[in-house]
Hints:
Blueprint: H1 3-29, H2 33-52, H3 54-61
Helix pairs in contact: 1-2
Amino acid sequence: MPFWIFAVVSTVARIPGTWASSYFGAHVAEQQYIYAIAFSRGCRRAVLPLYYYREALHQAVHKPRADKDKA
Length: 71
């Protein structure tokens, strides 16, 4: 994998986690615990279905390919 592809993909992949951490931390710092708890629960509700269906998602993303060497 070329370095520039790695750099772009890893940067884009980190954006949601960085945003969530900053948002949660800002609410905790301002002592707005209700918003922090609501955000935490919302994230959990969004992630739990992905965790539950992780095998099906993994198989959908990593479909077996025909070998190009066999000819």
